[in-house]
Amino acid sequence: xxxxxxxxxIAEGVRGRYILVRxxxxxxxxxxxxxxxxxxxASLPVLTKLTDAGARVLVTAHLGxxxxxxxxxxxxKPAAARLAELAPFSVTLAGxxxxxxxxxxxxxxxxxxxxxxxxxxFDARETSKDDAERGAFADELVALTAGNGAFVDDxxxxxxxxxxxxxxxATRLPSYQGDLVHTEVEVLRKLTADTQxxxxxxxxGSKVSDKLAVIDNLIGKADxxxxxxxxxxxxxxxxxxxxxxxxxxxxxxPVVQDYLKRAADAGTEFIVPTDVVVASKxxxxxxxxxxPADGIEGSSFGAQGIxxxxxxxxAAAFAxxxxxxxxxxxxxxxxxxxxxxxxxxTRAVAKALTEAEAFTVVGGGDSAAAVxxxxxxxxxxxxxxxxxxxxxxxxxxxxxxxxxxxxx
Length: 408
Ligand SMILES: Nc1ncnc2c1ncn2[C@@H]1O[C@H](COP(=O)(O)OP(=O)(O)O)[C@@H](O)[C@H]1O
Ligand SMILES: O=C(OP(=O)(O)O)[C@H](O)COP(=O)(O)O
Fold this sequence. Notes:
It is a single chain. With about 400 residues, the protein is α/β, with parallel strands linked by helices. The protein has 14 helices and 17 strands. The strands form four sheets. It has a six-stranded parallel sheet, with helices on both faces. A six-stranded parallel sheet has the order 11-10-9-15-16-17, with helices on both faces. Strands 13-12-14 form a three-stranded antiparallel sheet. Helix 7 packs parallel to helix 13 (about 390-395), helix 8 crosses helix 9 (about 255-265) and helix 10 runs parallel beside helix 11 (about 345-355). The radius of gyration is 22 Å and the shape is globular. Bound molecules: adenosine-5'-diphosphate (ADP) and 1,3-bisphosphoglyceric acid (X15). Adenosine-5'-diphosphate binds near residues 247, 335, 338 and 367.
């Protein structure tokens, strides 16, 4: 695939033009505080280049997974405020996405200024499976560019989503690849073109069904897949164990059983935790204890117990595998690292990556936030990617709608 670049767009001239930029501002929040601004910082260079060149920039972005209607807790307010603090240009947030506020503020936008539109997922059409519905929303976004606009996709974390602000707008406007997307794709392209083995993939996090789907194509590609985070319970259930109140995708149990069956023949080894930290409730101050992975319901909390981290034996086994690898890709925290009591597995995995003599990539909004929150520095890893699901889908060899739509 070849893409029109941001530099080409700037060379064509952007002064006075409305440039629609899809950024990934999906940052972790604690109330209205941004707890990791990595994605905002990663979005700055493209916005700075465009504003320096005199563009009127309209930023589209999502935050979380609202249900197609405005919800205060998913507002881009905190992200836009942090962007405004960091940016050398003026930033305003519209009160809506394509409504009267967006239209009025866009109309009065000056050269070199940025208007962030409210969370695109406040409109159900953004994520609709229906092409016409998404198209109608894309038309309204494009209308804000006043007839002479262009589109820049710089939201690497969302390139695997066939959503209106990622995909459909690119079919309606001259479209360009942002520098962040370019850099991220280059790193992953090199990783897939020349994978040094052993190649270890570490998976965790809470987007369990998304990630279980990705594993299918990693079987036969990765030498070892370490399974932690929320998805480990579906693996334990697939092995016939009871997981009490832990995260479980019951309908995925047969899928995981199939993975486990196919893996050995394909030369991929799954390593599933042998011990788990079980808590009385989902809270920072919950009572907790470490139990064998096949004894979760036997913890003091019985059927109420929730597995919130991998146990220390599993963390040590994972660390060993990671240290023996030549390539490591990690997406998804091993546990609820936001609570200190359940951060041990994530910390151990992060430390092992920093100690491995390997090319290491950490992908995902929360995974990147985790390593920084736990005190690691970005330069201790080969690459910290802004996209978790997007990176994984790239590595499994899937076509990413947000990239293929930009192919010239
Ligand atoms: N056992 C678990 N139960 C519930 N949530 C978990 C568990 N392990 C990890 N998580 C949560 O997963 C979240 C990150 O998941 P995800 O969004 O999939 O990762 P990323 O953003 O890195 O792709 C974190 O907020 C963490 O608290
Ligand atoms: O946080 C994101 O993905 P990630 O958790 O896989 O890194 C992106 O912003 C995409 O969000 P989505 O998975 O709700 O489409």
